[in-house]
Specification:
Layout: E1 5-6, E2 9-13, H1 20-33, E3 39-44, H2 50-63, E4 67-73, H3 76-85, E5 90-94, E6 103-110, H4 118-129, E7 144-146, H5 149-160, E8 168-172, H6 182-188, E9 192-196, H7 217-226, E10 230-233, E11 242-244, H8 253-263, E12 270-274, H9 280-287, E13 291-295, H10 299-308, E14 313-315, E15 321-322, H11 332-346, H12 350-355, E16 361-368, H13 374-388, E17 392-394, E18 399-403, E19 406-412, E20 418-425, H14 428-447
Parallel strand pairs: 3-4, 3-5, 4-7, 8-9, 8-10, 12-13, 12-14
Antiparallel strand pairs: 1-2, 2-6, 5-6, 10-11, 14-15, 16-20, 17-18, 18-19, 19-20
The protein binds magnesium ion.
Magnesium ion (MG) binds at residues 97-98, 235, 237, 239-240.
Length: 449
C-alpha cells in the first residue's frame, strides 16, 4: 500500500505531490472514515496555496456528508484546541509547518485535539489508495459556516496560563500564522512586545521558517542591540518555538531542558523527549526529581507517550512542545507564554539560567538524500556506522550509537529529502569528530548508487 503520511501529516510541493484533486479526495475519505456525518473544523496557515486546497478539501468533506466549520488562517495549535473546544468530530489543518513556501500539506486532529495516530492515518491511506469512499446524495450534502477560534483560544490561555509580566519580548513570527496570536497574548499579560515579521505573508520573505540559530540571526541581533529580556520565534504554523537570550545567544536544547525542569512540580513527574535531544534534559529534570522518557522523533510519538505516561511535558529539540495541562497539541504561542512565565517565576535572566546548565556540544547536520533512497541508505548506515563510531547501537529510531565520548544519531527526515545527523559530546572537538565520522558514512553511502 502507498504512503501519504510522513512523521507530521501529508506534506509535499504544491502542484507536484500536493494538488486540489488530492485534497478533494482526502475530504471524501475523511468524511467516509467519520461515518459521513458530523463537523470537521478546517484551518490553514498563510501559504499562497492555502485557499485553493481549503476549497478542494471542503468540497470533498461536504460531498461526503460532513459539515464544515471554517477557521480561516490560524496557527495549528489554535485549530487543534478549537477542534476539541467546539466538539467537532475532527480537525483538518492545511499547512507545511516549517517547509519552504512552495510546500503545503495536511495534518488531521481527532476530537480530543490530538494528532491522528499512525493507525488513524493508515485507515485514511487504505481508503484513499483503494479509492473506497462514500459520497452522499444531494439532500445529505453538508453545510459550511465560518467560526472564530482565535477568541476561544485566547480565552483558554487567559484562564489557564495566569501571570503578569513587564518583560520586554522581541517576537519573530517569520510572517507565519503566529503573527495573529503571540504578540497579542504577551501584550495582554503586560509584556512590552516588539514584533518582527509579524504580518502573515505566504511568501515567507523574511527568513527560513525553522526557528533555529541560522534563521534567527536578525532576532538575535535585535535582542542584543536593544539589550532586552528575551527573543522568541515561531515556525510557519506556530506549533514550534525558538529563543535567544538577552545576550542574543540562540538557546536550543538548554531551553528545552529548562522548560522540562520547570514543568516538574513534584518528584516522579515524567517528561517526554525524543532520542535526538541533548543529555542536558536528563541533567535538568533529574535534579528536580523528575524522570525523562525518550521516544522516537515526531510530535505524534511525543503526544502518545505524554498520554501513556501521564507526563507533565513533552518536548523536542525542534521546538515542538506539548503542555498537557492545557492540551495535547504542540503549541508555539503557549510555549512563548510559558517561557515568559518561567522567567517571571525565577526572577532571573535567561542567560543566567542557561549558563548554570552543563555544557554539552550538540551538533546537527542534514545530508541531502532522495526520499526513495532513504530505506536503502539507512540499512547501509546501520551496517557501517558502529565501525566508525564505536559504542552501543540502538535502532529504536534511525541508528544511534552511544560511545564513551558522547553519542551520535543518524535518522531520515520524515518530512524532507534529508538524512539528519546529530552528535553530542562534552566538548566541541569531540562532537565535531563524532559528527564528521557519522556524516562521512552517510555521504559515502548516498554517493554510491
Ligand atoms: Mg510547525
Amino acid at each position: 500500500m502507498g504512503k501519504l503520511f510522513g512523521t507530521s501529516g501529508v506534506r509535499g510541493i504544491f502542484g507536484k505531490e500536493i494538488t486540489p484533486e488530492l485534497f478533494a479526495d482526502l475530504g471524501r475519505v475523511i468524511a467516509t472514515v467519520l461515518g459521513n456525518s458530523g463537523t470537521v473544523v478546517v484551518g490553514r496557515d498563510p501559504r499562497l496555496s492555502g485557499p485553493v486546497l481549503e476549497n478542494a478539501l471542503v468540497a470533498g468533506l461536504l460531498s461526503g456528508g460532513c459539515d464544515v466549520a471554517l477557521a480561516g488562517m490560524v496557527p495549528t495549535p489554535v485549530l487543534a484546541l478549537g477542534t476539541k473546544l467546539v466538539g467537532a468530530k475532527s480537525g483538518a489543518m492545511i499547512t507545511a509547518s516549517h517547509n519552504p513556501p512552495e510546500y503545503n500539506g495536511l495534518k488531521c486532529w481527532n476530537r480530543d485535539g490530538m494528532a491522528y495516530t499512525p493507525a488513524e492515518e493508515e485507515k485514511i491511506e487504505e481508503l484513499y489508495f483503494g479509492r473506497r469512499w462514500r459520497t452522499v446524495g444531494w439532500d445529505e450534502i453538508g453545510t459550511c459556516r465560518e467560526i472564530d477560534l482565535l477568541s476561544r483560544y485566547e480565552q483558554v490561555m487567559a484562564e489557564r496560563v495566569g501571570f503578569e509580566s513587564t518583560l520586554t519580548v522581541v517576537v519573530d513570527c517569520g510572517n507565519g500564522a503566529a503573527s495573529v496570536v503571540t504578540p497579542q497574548l504577551l501584550r495582554e499579560r503586560g509584556c512590552k512586545v516588539i514584533a518582527l515579521n509579524s504580518n502573515p505573508d505566504g511568501l515567507f520573505p523574511a527568513r527560513g521558517l525553522e526557528p533555529n540559530e541560522k534563521n534567527l540571526q536578525v532576532l538575535a541581533k535585535t535582542v542584543r542591540e536593544l539589550g532586552v529580556g528575551v527573543g522568541l520565534a515561531h515556525d510557519g504554523d506556530a506549533d514550534r518555538i525558538g529563543a535567544v537570550d538577552e545576550k542574543g545567544r540562540f538557546v536550543g536544547d538548554k531551553l528545552l531542558a529548562l522548560m522540562a525542569a520547570f514543568q516538574v512540580k513534584k518528584p516522579g513527574d515524567v517528561v517526554v523527549t525524543t532520542v535526538d535531544a541533548s543529555r542536558v534534559v536528563e541533567d535538568a529534570v533529574e535534579e528536580r526529581g523528575g524522570r525523562v522518557v525518550r521516544v522516537r522523533v515526531g510530535d505524534v510519538a511525543v503526544a502518545q507517550a505524554v498520554v501513556e505516561h501521564r507526563a507533565v511535558f513533552g518536548g523536542e529539540p525542534s521546538g515542538s512542545w506539548i503542555f498537557p495541562e492545557v492540551h495535547l497539541a504542540p503549541d508555539g504561542p503557549l510555549a512563548a507564554l510559558k517561557v515568559v512565565e518561567l522567567l517571571e517565576s525565577t526572577g532571573r535572566k535567561l542567560s543566567e539560567l542557561v549558563d548554570e546548565l552543563p555544557d554539552y556540544v550538540t551538533l546537527r547536520e542534514k545530508i541531502a538524500c532522495p526520499n526513495e533512497r532513504k530505506g536503502e541508505v539507512m540499512r547501509k548506515v546501520e551496517e557501517l556506522l558502529p565501525r566508525e563510531a564505536k559504542g552501543e547501537i540502538s535502532t529504536a529510531d534511525g541508528v544511534r550509537v552511544d560511545a564513551e565520548s558522547g553519542w551520535v544519531l543518524v535518522r531520515p527526515s520524515g518530512t524532507e529529502p534529508y538524512i539528519r545527523v546529530t552528535a553530542e559530546a562534552e566538548d566541541e572537538a569531540g562532537a565535531k569528530e563524532l559528527l564528521r565520522r557519522a556524516a562521512g558514512v552517510v555521504e559515502s553511502v548516498v554517493k554510491k548508487k
